[in-house]
Design brief:
alpha/beta; 2,3-Dihydroxybiphenyl 1,2-Dioxygenase, domain 1; 4-stranded mixed β-sheet; 8 strands; about 35% helix
Length: about 150
């Protein structure tokens, strides 16, 4: 009897452990940031932030960049809201900006130096570098209608 109870408990524990786990897990490949002008955004994200081109087709309003620190990492699609973009996307983007809400977060291993470098390139900060419960944070404007959080964990 004890052996049956033990087998049942082990079966339940194994089931609980594997619940929610996918047999074929996925990873994040690309995320979108809504931008008013992908050509202007591409210039900002590559020349100012230092991201690298993955795909760039200005005549098709297509711009994809990635971090130089992670060759196989997540790519960033600079998703245009103009010309003729989807109205709900434009409204969502505008309201997030008015709220001061960052649309994405980037990390730095030396946030103080990164903030100094961005400021020297003319980047405007909504929130200056500050200590938080989890590390350090600053929020800057991407000059395309978005706020970006920059953080460094303790």
């Amino acid at each position: 009897m004890m052996r049956i109870v033990l087998i049942i408990l082990i079966t339940i524990l194994i089931s609980l452990h594997t619940m929610g786990q996918n047999e074929h897990p996925m990873k994040i490949a690309m995320v979108s940031v809504l931008v008013e002008d992908p050509v202007k955004a591409f210039k900002f994200y590559t020349e100012i932030l230092g991201f690298e081109e993955v795909m760039y087709s200005p005549e098709n309003y297509l711009a994809i960049v990635k971090s130089p620190l992670d060759a196989e990492g997540v790519t960033l699609l600079l998703e245009p809201t103009e010309p003729g973009g989807i109205e709900i996307a434009k409204k969502f983007k505008k309201e997030l900006y008015q709220m001061g809400m960052p649309v994405i977060s980037f990390s730095s291993d030396n946030i103080q130096k990164t903030v100094e470098e961005l400021k020297s390139k003319g980047v405007k900060f909504k929130k200056e570098l500050a200590k938080t419960d989890y590390g350090y944070e600053a929020i800057f404007d991407d000059d395309n209608g978005n706020y970006i959080q920059l953080f460094q964990l303790d």
